[in-house]
Design goal:
Layout lengths: L1 H8 L10 H14 L1 H33 L1 H11 L3 H5 L5
Helix pairs in contact: 3-4
Length: about 90
């Protein structure tokens, strides 16, 4: 395990690449103390709220775009943008 050797020998800063033992100890401490499970619950709650907000906006907007042709014509080019198209501007 090159990772363990490099971090234990001090050739790599432990704040950047901590030894596996340190990671395991922090994991156990988080699980035993309950802090890790609480943090996971908060993350899942935030993801669920974000998903619900996206659904609450996207579904009515999609239905509205399907009913009103002018709205679809105005918004479709914006909504059809893909990350690949916008990344073309950054090629060197």
């Amino acid at each position: 395990m090159l990772w363990q050797v490099a971090s234990s020998a001090g050739s790599v800063n432990a704040a950047v690449l901590p030894p596996i033992g340190m990671i395991a100890a922090a994991l156990w401490k988080g699980l035993a103390g309950g802090a890790l499970l609480g943090d996971i619950a908060i993350i899942l709650q935030r993801a669920g709220i974000a998903f619900a907000a996206a659904v609450a906006v996207a579904i009515p907007l999609g239905l509205f775009m399907g009913q009103v042709r002018a709205v679809e014509t105005a918004l479709d080019p914006i909504l059809q943008q893909s990350p690949r198209k916008s990344l073309r501007w950054f090629r060197g």
